[in-house]
Write a structure and sequence with these properties.
single chain; mainly alpha; two-stranded antiparallel ribbon; two-stranded parallel sheet; 37 helices; flat; disordered N terminus
C-alpha cells in the first residue's frame, strides 16, 4: 500500500487535527482524542454505512450473503503478512478459520484476549425469516446455473432459525432492511454476466450511484443525503486522501470536484443519458485505476488511502460488540473477523494495520462504555503488548504506519496518564483495578514509543518536568506525588479552607480535622495502592508519605504565618501536626527496607514541622502592625490631603513625608532587633511596604485625565464667500480695534488673571511629591539591602540581586512612579493650556481675523505661566513637565487651525502669518529655562504641526486633489468612478498632512469659492452661521 498523501504534520502533534472519540455514541465528558485525522463532512454513521457496503460486497460469495453456494474468494492480501490461518491459532485478534459459519461455539480470539463468553442462550441469534434469507427456495433448483442471486427475505413463514453472519452484521451495523435491499439490488445489477468479478475491481459508491434511483428512496431528501454521502466517500478516497497522490493538473480530478460541488445543493441526474453521470464515471474510473508508473493493475484504489481506510475499518471492527451489552464481544467474533479480512485488499489493510486498529477499537470501547468492563482494557493491553509490540519491531514498516502507530500510542498513553496522575479520584470511580490495569498500559505504550518510534525518545528527553527520567520508578513516583497533591487539594476544597482564613481562630479546628483526614488518606494509600505500585517502585508508600507530609507542611506554614500569638488552639494544631508527622515518618521507615540507603534520602525530603521561635512570631506580628500603621497614614491622606507644599524649601505634600518617615523608622527599628534577620523576613517587610507605596502612588495619580480638558470638536461646515458675515467683514475691519479692545475687556472680566490656576499648581505639587518619593525610595532600598545583619536565604527571590550587587526591593514601585509622573505631567500641561490659557489661546487665537488676532498675547501669557511652573517644580520634575506643556500647546494650536469652529476662517494668504506665529511658539520653548528642552526635541514634536501649516499654503485645487487621493486610498475605493462619491473620512484626532480628515478640515476653513463649491457638492456641508 502506498504512503498516504494526507497525514498529520507530526506524529507528536496529532491533537492539532484530532476529533473527540465517540461524537455520536459517547458522552461529552470523554477526553480521549482520536489518533486518526478527521475528515470534514463525514461522521461515524457515514463510515459505518460505507463499511457495511464494502463488507457485504467483499463477502458476497460467502454463505448467507446472497449465493446458494460458497464461491472461492482469492484475495491478493492472502499469504505473507496477511495470510488467512497461518497465525490464527496463536495471534489474538487475528482472523481465524471457523469450523463452520454460524456454528461457532467457542471463540479462540476471546479466549486469547481473556474475554468472557456471553451468558445468554443462542436463541438471541434466532431469526424469524423463513428458509434461507438470501436465496430463493431450492425446490427443483438443483440444476440451476450458479448465478448469484440477491433475494429480499420472504415473510411467508416465520420459523425461527439461527441468524447468518450477514444478518448479524446488518443488525450490528444498524443497517435498515431498505438499505440492505438496495445494496443487494445494486450488486445484482452490477454483476449481471460478471459473476466472477472480484470485489476489489468494483468501485462500490459509483455502482450505487449508477444503479439506484430516487424512486427507491422514501423521498427526494433522503436520496439527496444518501447521494452526498457517496460523493463524500469518493471525494475522500480519490481526492482528499488517495493512496496515490493526485496531480493538481489532473483534468479528471477537476471535473470530479465540479460534479461534487454541484451535488451539494441538489441531487444530480444519474440516468443513462445524463452527461454528468458519464463525466462522473469517466473521472472516478480514471482516478481509481491509476498506478504509480502507469502500468496496468487488477485492483482499483478508491478506499485504501489513509485515514479514510482506517475510519472505515475501525467502524467495521466496532460491529463485534454486542448491541444488547456493548461492553461484551460477540461469541461469533472469530468468523466475523475472518469475513472482515476479505475487505483488506479493498481498504489497503494488512495484518499489522489490522492489529493496531483492533487494539484501538477495544481500547476505545472500554472508554466510551464508561470504563465498567476491565476485560476490554485487558484485551487491548494483550494486543498492545503482543501483536502491536511485535509489529512495531518489523523493519519493513511503512512511514504512514509508524506515524499512525505513534498517534495511537500517544493517545492511549496520554489518556492513561491523565488517570494515573490523579489515581485516587479515578479509583474512586473504577476501583483499584483501574490502577492495576492502567500502569501496564502506560508503560507498554511508553516502551514501544521510546524503543520503536524514531525521534520520540529525543523529544521526550527535552522535557524538564518530573517525567524527564525514563525509568518506570521515577514515573510512578511522579504519579504518586501528583495524585497525593490532588487528593489533598480536594480535601481542602471539601472543608472550604483558603489562604484568607488563616488569620481567623476557627482555622485551628479546620487544620486539626484536616490532619485526621490526612491520616486516613495515608492508611488507604498504604493498604490499597502501595501494594500495586510496589511492582514498579519499591518504596511507593514512602514516596506517598513524603508527598502528603509536604502538602500538610505547606498549609501548616501558612497557618503559622497568620497565628502570630501562641494560643491553646495553636498548640493543639501543632500537637496534631506532630502526630501526623510521626505516622508519615513511620510509613517511610517501614517502606525503606528494600532501599540501598535504608530510606535516608527520602527521609531527608521531609522538612520537619518546626515552629518559629516566639521572637520570630512576635516579629511577624510587629511587622504586620507597622504595615497597618502605614495603611492608616494613607487612608488619612486620602481624606485630608490638600496638595499644598509643606514649605517653600519642601515643595511636596505632607502625607508623603509622613509615610516615608514611618517606613524609615520601621526599617531602622527592624534591624535593631538582637537577632539574625533572614532574607525572607526582609522580603516580607519590603513587600508589605511596596504594596503601601504603590497604593499611595495610585492615590497621587488620581487627578483625572487630559482628555477632560480637550474641547469637543465642532461640526464641519463650509465657508460661504457670499454670506452675510463675509459682506460685513470689510465693514468690521474698520472698527476691529475698538471691538477687539471691548472683547478683551470682557475677557478680562471673566479671567481676571492670565496665570496658572490653583488647581494646576496643586498638580505641580503632586509632581514634586512623586519625585520626592522616588528619591527617598532609593535611600530606603539601600538601607534594606546593605545591612550586615541579613542572613541570606537560598529561596529568597532577592538573593541573586544581592550577589551581583543590585539591591532593588521596590522595582514595581519605581515603575509605578515613573508612569505616574508621566500621567500627572500630561494632565497638568493640558489643564494649563486648554483651561488656564483658554482665553488667550484656543478661545481667541485667529478668531474672525488672522492678522489682528495673532499669537503674541498667548505667548506672553504662556511665558508667564512657564516661569511660574519652573518656580514651583523641582529641578527633576521640570524637563518632562515643560515637554508636556509644549506638546499640549502644539495640540491646541492644531485645534485652532483644524477644529476652531465657525469663528475661524483662513485664506491661503494667511499661511505666512501662521507659519511665523508657530515659529515664535517653538522659539519660546527652545529658550525656556537653561536647556531644559533641546531644539531637536522641539523640532521633532513640531513636525506634525508644520505639516498641517504646509497644507494651508497649498491651493484649494491642490488640497482637493490630495484629499481625493488619500480619502480613496484610506477607504479602499481606489479611483472614484462615475457616479461615485468621495467617502467622508472619520475623525481620528491624530492630525497629520497625509490624513484625509486633516486635509478636509483645512478645506472647510478655506475661505474661497472653490472650497465652498467642493464641500457643498461632495458632502453637502452646511454654511456657517453669521455672527
Amino acid at each position: 500500500m502506498m504512503e498516504p498523501t494526507t497525514t498529520s504534520n507530526s506524529m507528536m502533534q496529532h491533537h492539532g487535527h484530532a476529533n473527540t472519540i465517540g461524537e455520536d455514541v459517547a458522552s461529552g465528558d470523554i477526553d480521549l482524542m482520536c489518533p486518526f485525522e478527521n475528515i470534514d463532512g463525514l461522521r461515524r454513521d457515514h463510515f459505518r454505512d460505507a463499511a457495511y457496503e464494502i463488507f457485504f460486497t467483499a463477502c458476497r460469495s460467502s454463505p448467507g450473503f446472497g449465493s446458494r453456494t460458497a464461491l472461492s474468494y482469492h484475495s491478493p492480501s492472502e499469504g505473507g503478512d496477511g495470510s488467512g490461518t497461518g497465525v490464527g491459532s496463536t495471534s489474538p485478534g487475528s482472523p481465524v478459520k471457523p469450523s463452520g459459519v454460524g456454528m461457532a461455539v467457542t471463540s479462540k480470539v476471546k479466549t486469547a484476549l481473556g474475554l468472557k463468553m456471553l451468558k445468554r442462550s443462542r436463541s438471541r441469534r434466532a431469526s424469524s425469516y423463513g428458509g434461507n434469507p438470501s436465496s430463493p427456495p431450492s425446490s427443483g433448483g438443483g440444476g440451476t446455473s450458479p448465478k448469484v442471486s440477491f433475494t429480499v427475505p420472504s415473510h411467508g413463514t416465520r420459523a425461527r432459525r439461527p441468524m447468518t453472519s450477514a444478518e448479524i452484521m446488518r443488525r450490528q451495523m444498524r443497517v435498515s432492511e431498505q438499505s440492505d435491499s438496495r445494496l443487494r439490488k445494486t450488486l445484482m445489477r452490477t454483476l449481471v454476466g460478471q459473476m466472477g468479478r472480484r470485489a476489489e475491481t468494483i468501485i462500490l459508491p459509483l455502482e450505487l450511484l449508477r444503479h439506484l434511483k430516487p424512486s427507491e428512496f422514501s423521498d427526494s431528501h433522503e436520496y439527496h443525503q444518501w447521494q452526498k454521502r457517496q460523493f463524500r466517500i469518493l471525494e475522500a478516497g480519490l481526492l482528499l486522501h488517495p493512496s496515490l497522490p493526485v496531480e493538481k493538473s489532473n483534468t479528471f480530478a477537476k471535473r470530479f470536484r465540479e460534479i461534487i460541488r454541484s451535488a451539494e445543493t441538489k441531487a444530480i441526474d444519474t440516468g443513462k443519458n445524463s452527461e454528468t453521470m458519464r463525466a462522473l464515471c469517466n473521472s472516478v474510473v480514471s482516478l481509481a485505476w491509476r498506478t504509480v508508473d502507469g502500468s496496468a493493475t487488477d485492483i482499483c484504489h478508491w478506499a485504501d488511502g489513509f485515514p479514510l481506510n482506517v475510519h472505515i475499518y475501525t467502524a467495521l471492527l466496532s460491529s463485534i460488540f454486542d448491541m444488547k451489552d456493548d461492553t461484551m464481544v460477540l461469541d461469533e467474533v472469530d468468523e466475523l473477523l475472518e469475513l472482515m479480512k476479505k475487505t483488506w485488499v479493498i481498504l489497503g489493510v494488512n495484518k499489522s494495520l489490522h492489529n493496531l486498529c483492533f487494539t484501538w477499537v477495544l481500547f476505545e470501547q472500554y472508554i466510551v462504555t464508561g470504563q465498567v468492563e476491565p476485560d476490554l482494557l485487558g484485551a487491548a493491553m494483550i494486543m498492545l503488548s503482543t501483536e502491536v509490540a511485535n509489529d512495531a519491531k518489523k523493519v519493513d514498516r511503512e512511514p504512514f504506519y509508524v506515524k499512525m502507530l505513534a498517534n495511537v500510542l500517544i493517545s492511549m498513553r496520554e489518556w492513561s496518564e491523565k488517570r494515573l496522575v490523579n489515581y485516587h479520584e479515578s479509583c474512586n470511580k473504577g476501583g483499584a483495578g483501574m490502577l492495576e490495569n492502567n500502569l501496564p498500559l502506560f508503560f507498554a505504550a511508553t516502551k514501544i514509543l521510546e524503543e520503536d518510534i524514531p525521534g520520540y525518545t529525543s523529544d521526550e528527553s527535552e522535557k524538564v518536568d518530573e517525567l524527564a527520567d525514563d525509568s518506570a520508578g521515577n514515573k510512578v513516583c511522579y504519579f504518586i506525588r501528583s495524585s497525593m497533591r490532588d487528593s489533598f487539594a480536594k480535601m481542602l476544597e471539601e472543608i472550604n479552607i483558603d489562604g484568607a482564613s488563616f488569620e481567623l481562630e476557627e482555622v485551628s479546628q479546620t487544620l486539626i480535622k484536616l490532619a485526621y483526614e490526612a491520616e486516613e488518606l495515608a492508611a488507604k494509600e498504604k493498604v490499597t495502592f502501595s501494594p500495586i505500585l510496589k511492582k514498579w517502585l519499591p518504596n511507593a508508600a514512602g514516596v506517598a508519605a513524603v508527598a502528603l507530609h509536604s502538602c500538610y507542611g505547606t498549609l501548616l506554614k501558612q497557618y503559622l504565618t497568620g497565628a502570630t500569638l501562641l494560643t491553646n488552639q495553636t498548640v493543639l494544631v501543632l500537637q496534631k501536626a506532630g502526630k501526623l508527622e510521626k505516622i508519615l515518618i513511620q510509613m517511610v521507615v517501614e517502606d525503606s527496607d528494600e532501599c540501598e540507603d535504608g530510606g535516608k534520602a527520602i527521609v531527608r525530603e521531609m522538612v520537619p514541622y518546626e515552629v518559629d521561635s516566639i521572637i520570630m512570631n512576635l516579629l511577624r506580628k510587629w511587622i504586620q502592625e507597622r504595615l497597618k500603621k502605614g495603611k492608616e497614614i494613607i487612608m488619612r491622606a486620602k481624606e485630608t490631603e490638600t496638595w499644598n507644599p509643606k514649605s517653600k524649601t519642601e515643595p511636596y505634600a505632607q502625607s508623603a513625608v509622613d509615610l516615608m518617615r514611618h517606613a524609615k523608622e520601621t526599617v531602622e527599628t527592624f534591624f535593631e532587633i538582637p537577632m539574625a534577620i533572614s532574607d525572607d523576613l526582609v522580603g516580607d517587610l519590603a513587600d508589605g511596604f511596596e504594596h503601601l507605596f504603590k497604593e499611595y502612588v495610585t492615590f497621587v495619580t488620581s487627578c483625572g485625565s487630559k482628555q477632560s480638558y480637550i474641547p469637543t470638536l465642532p461640526p464641519l461646515t463650509r465657508c460661504n464667500q457670499d454670506s452675510r458675515i463675509s459682506r460685513l467683514w470689510k465693514f468690521a475691519v474698520c472698527s476691529v480695534g475698538e471691538d477687539e479692545q471691548n472683547r478683551h475687556i470682557a475677557d478680562e472680566g471673566n479671567h481676571p488673571r492670565l496665570s496658572t490656576s490653583r488647581g494646576t499648581q496643586r498638580l505641580y505639587i503632586r509632581l514634586n511629591t512623586l519625585h520626592y518619593f522616588l528619591l527617598q525610595l532609593h535611600s530606603l532600598d539601600k538601607t534594606l539591602s546593605i545591612s550586615s545583619k541579613i542572613v541570606p536565604s537560598s529561596r529568597n527571590r532577592h538573593n541573586k540581586n544581592r550577589q551581583i550587587g543590585r539591591y532593588s526591593y521596590f522595582d514595581h514601585t519605581r515603575s509605578a512612579i515613573q508612569a505616574a509622573v508621566q500621567h500627572v505631567s500630561e494632565v497638568a500641561s493640558y489643564r494649563l493650556i486648554f483651561f488656564d490659557s483658554h482665553s488667550v489661546f484656543y478661545g481667541s487665537l485667529y478668531v474672525r481675523d488672522v492678522e489682528n488676532t495673532r499669537i503674541r498675547p498667548a505667548l506672553k501669557a504662556l511665558k508667564q505661566n512657564l516661569t511660574l511652573l519652573c518656580a514651583i517644580l523641582t529641578d527633576k520634575a521640570q524637563p518632562l513637565a515643560l515637554k508636556e506643556v509644549m506638546k499640549a500647546s502644539f495640540e491646541s494650536y492644531l485645534m485652532v487651525l483644524l477644529a476652531g469652529g465657525s469663528k475661524r476662517i483662513f485664506s491661503r494668504a494667511d499661511h505666512q502669518i501662521i507659519e511665523e506665529d508657530f515659529e515664535s511658539l517653538k522659539r519660546l520653548f527652545c529658550t525656556c529655562g537653561e536647556g531644559l528642552i533641546v531644539e531637536d526635541v522641539v523640532d521633532t514634536e513640531a513636525e506634525m504641526v508644520e505639516g498641517v501649516i504646509a497644507l494651508m499654503g497649498q491651493s484649494t485645487e491642490q488640497l482637493v486633489e490630495d484629499f481625493s487621493i488619500v480619502a480613496c486610498e484610506a477607504s479602499g475605493m481606489g479611483i472614484v468612478g462615475s457616479g461615485q462619491k468621495l467617502p467622508m473620512p472619520p475623525t481620528t484626532g491624530r492630525w497629520n498632512r497625509s490624513d484625509p480628515n486633516t486635509i478636509l478640515r483645512v478645506v472647510c476653513h478655506r475661505n474661497d469659492k472653490a472650497a465652498n463649491q467642493f464641500l457643498k457638492k461632495t458632502f453637502q456641508l452646511a454654511k456657517r452661521r453669521p455672527y
